[in-house]
Amino acid sequence: MSEISIYVKRGANLQTTEKFTLDLSLGDSTVLEALQIIQEEFDDTLAIRYGCRFKQCGLCAVTVNGNPRMGCMTKVKDGMVVGPLEHLPIQKDLVVERRFITENIKNKKLFPQTLNHSINPVTTKEFDILSKCTDCQSCLSGCPEYHFEKMDSFAGPLFFVKLAQLQNHPQNEHNYLEKAKELGMEMCKGCAGCPCPYGIPIKKLAINPFLNELNQ
Predict the structure, then answer these.
(1) In CATH, what class is 2-96?
(2) How far apart, in whole angstroms, are the C-alpha atoms of residue 96 and residue 69?
(3) Which one, out of 32, 132, 139, 210, has a CA that is 20 to 30 A from the CA of 183?
(4) Domain positions in the chain
(5) Is CATH 1.10.1060.10 the classification given to domain 99-214?
């Protein structure tokens, strides 16, 4: 066990950074474990969100030293600064808004338009990889173009993944190219890619196929 210090950004405008000193096992303990200890033993008002505790639910995403990370997948280190995901509305402390995901899927009609149920529903490798998305919002936080208040002109990589899932559905017969343009995907042309803690190559699988077709 080692004594380590963790700094947690809090407050409506993240104007407060609180220091917590914990005894943890370096190399084994995760950021999520540290936050749970802080909440249970130091400050029960600290707002955090988590579900499965091991990379299945996508709920414990935070920023670590300014970079989006999954709390349950990131090993804790001395001096870490933990904050909420950036570019998203904060509910409290490390908890950001999630309701807009479902609302945006509904409003932008990101659901199957045409499915041919007579086709054998054998998924492709691309579809299986895209389906690993847990809506953790890390890609939105790490995207240089995205901001919650500008979603009407640029939906953001999370919703590009949703669109690519539709395009790659084994029974899909609809081309979602116009929807890609509507979501502002053309703004991604000069981007190298955005982070995904689950290893989804968002630029390669969810964005480039649409951009290549748009450029034809």
Answers:
(1) alpha beta
(2) 14
(3) 132
(4) 2-96, 99-214
(5) yes
